[in-house]
Fold:
Amino acid sequence: QSCLPQNYSIRPLGSRDYDRGHLQVLGVLTDIGHHSPQDWLDQFYYMKKRNDTYFSLVIIDHASDRVVAVGTLLMERKFVHCNGKVGHIEDIAVANDQQGKKLGLRMIEALQYIGARNGCYKVILDCAVKNVPFYEKCGFVQKESQMAWYV
Ligand code: ACO
Structure:
C-alpha cells in the first residue's frame, strides 16, 4: 500500500509549522538549538526564496494538527554530467510516538520523486549505520564512505 494512514497528509513546510511542532520533530534527530519564532521564520523565508534548491516537506496528523515527520531535499547543481543535478536528502525525522507507521518511507518516496522530477541523476544521503536497513527498504544502496571535517 503506497499511501499515508487516514488523516495524515504530506505537503511543503509552511510558515505556520513552527506552531505545529516542526522543531520538536527535528529534535528527534539531533540538537536543534534555541530558536525564537523569528529565528525559525528567518530560516524558513531564506529557504522559501530559494525554492529551486530547498524542498522541505512535512507530514501532518490532522487529528492533532501536528507535524509528525519532516524531511528535506537539497538540490545541488554541478558542471559534471553536463550541468547535472544531485539531490541530497537531509534531516529526516519521525516523531518518536509515530515511528513504524511507514511515515519515514513515505517521506523518502516523496523526496525521491521530487528529485527525479527535477532532473537529478542521483539522490544521496548520509546516515547512521543503524539506519542502513531503513534506507535499503527505501531503495538505496551503500556506496563509498562518508567523511566529515568539524570546525
Ligand atoms: N532498522 C531496521 N529496519 C527499519 C529501521 C531500522 N532502524 N527503521 C525502519 N525500518 C524498517 C521498518 O521496519 C519498515 O520495514 P517493513 O516495510 O518491512 O515493515 C521500513 O523500514 C519502513 O519503516 P517506517 O515505518 O517508514 O520507518 P519510520 O517511519 O519509523 O522512520 C526513521 C524511520 C526516519 C529512521 C525514524 O525511525 C526516525 O525518525 N529515527 C530517528 C531520527 C533518524 O535517525 N533519522 C534519520 C537520519 S538520516 C538522514 O536524515 C539523511
Q: What stands out?
A: The chain has a mean pLDDT of 97. The domain at 8-137 is CATH 3.40.630.30 (Aminopeptidase).
